Amino acid sequence: xxxxxxCPKCDCSHLEKFSGSKSSHGSRSFIRLSLFTFxxxxxxxxxDCGHCEEWVSPRGLxxxxxxxxxxxxx
Length: 74
Ligand SMILES: [Zn+2]
What we know:
Helices cover 14% and strands 28% of the residues. It is of the alpha+beta class and 74 residues long. It has one domain (15-67). The longest helix has 10 residues, at 58-67. Zinc ion binds next to loops.
């Protein structure tokens, strides 16, 4: 859904991305790893059926992988 630009449930293309880094409306979303380390999570919502997915940014994914021992090469 993040790259296909189509909803997997209803197959429409009316997708809106809500960045987790924006603190407006208190919609800030993230995964906290430690006191000072957290990864922003973006939400993508289908405006037709309401299906919602959450995506970690590529930069955040790099942090998560290193924290969980997946290595940078994967
Ligand atoms: Zn949909």
